[in-house]
Amino acid sequence: MTPPPPEPRRPHHPALADTIRFACATALTGIIAGLVGLACIHILHSLTALVWDAHSGTLLEAVEAAPWWKRVAVLAASGAIGGISWTLLFRSNKDVVPVARCVQGESMPVVRALWHALTQIGVVALGASVGREVAPREVAASLSAWMGDRLGLSPRDRRIIVACGAGAGLAAVYSIPLSGAVYTLEILLVGMSARACAAALAASGIAVLVSTGWARPEPFYTVPDLSPSLSLTVWAAVFGAVIGWLGWAFKGAVAAASGARPRGARLLWTLPVAFTAVGALSVWVPSVLGNGQASAQTQFDAAWAGGAGLAVAALVLAAKAVATLVTIRAGAWGGVLTPAVALGAGLGALSGLAWSQAWPGSPVAAHVFIGAAVFLGASMGAPFTGLVLVAEFTQQGAGILVPAIVATASATAASALARALRSGRGPGRGPR
After folding, report:
1. Count of CB atoms situated within 10 Å of the CB of 227
2. Domain span at residue 338?
3. Domain containing 250 — which CATH number?
4. 316-350 residue pLDDT tens
5. Are residues 237 and 366 in the same domain?
6. 3-state class of 35 per DSSP?
7. pLDDT digits (tens, 9 = 90+) for 356-384
8. Rounded mean pLDDT of the chain?
9. Is 424 exposed, middle or buried (0-12, 13-18, 19+ CB in 10 A)?
10. How many alpha carbons lie under 13 Å from residue 39 in its C-beta half-sphere?
11. Is pTM beyond 0.85 here?
12. CA 191 to CA 185: how far, in whole Å?
């Protein structure tokens, strides 16, 4: 009797299996980042309400209502807490794995990332002059890397997933889904493959849905309706380059301050001293406290005041720049995204107020918006991210898109020229 022929083997499709695994990892990354962002928001707001009695209204209103001695005392306590926590964290290992290195495959221990992030959130809630966005990015990236390793992702897919986790963490904590995706692609992956784009958009969208829900929250900054004009466009072309160069210089100053900050027992006195000094500065400039939202909003408000706002804009700009750099140099860790928005807004307010006296055309708030966007983009080396971030922060910008793009182009060219001259190459010349 002839045996039956063997059944044909079904073809194996490893690419399909990898794609399904990658899709599951993308969805899980969005959920993880959304939960991380939600936790950061609640911890930050709870601590701020407890310490500053900010149960309603803004941090700036709570700080202004507090007596001068409380501002100094709270900042001194924040410095002491940060100094103790970071000293213990760096006791056996002084290295901090940034998100960029985690994206490239380096391990970022979850417990260490959580400790580092909670310290950042704590000092920001108490008024430290740094941004809060690094904490959710680090934790989401660390957890995404752990999850990707458990799922057995390929090195290429793991890299994409970790970057998406970081971008989605940023998106979740500020409820800015498009900015999170653009940040992932322009800064972390520096690429636009279909696989990366789909994952970045999906992860950021899911993360914001988890952290915020369907309803869009109030804008991070309150801005009046913005309108374009020839005056604004000419200003954008001229001052876009100036503000872009200053953004590039700020990036260098932050890098220098970050590289020189202590990571040992010196933190026990450098942070309390620096934070106490920032608290003393807040007696005269209350908006200097916090991650930069108050300072930027003060600049938009100064724009409404017309010429009378010049002195306010200059004072807040100088105070925020000094407070942020001193805080980082003393040993604090945190973001500079919202501080950069505040500084760019100040430069836009100063130049816009002066320009509008000679050539009126658009509301000064339009200059503030563009200044914030181009300074942020130049300080991050990511012009698209800077423009999209400020547009989502304010829920404005469509009406002045052409002047904003002109300013962004001018700022990007000025930043590139500054980098070329700094590296010893003239414009248009290749590497030596």
Report:
1. 13
2. 230-423
3. 1.10.3080.10
4. 999 999 999 999 999 999 999 999 999 999 999 99
5. yes
6. helix
7. 889 988 889 999 999 999 999 999 999 99
8. 91
9. exposed
10. 15
11. yes
12. 6
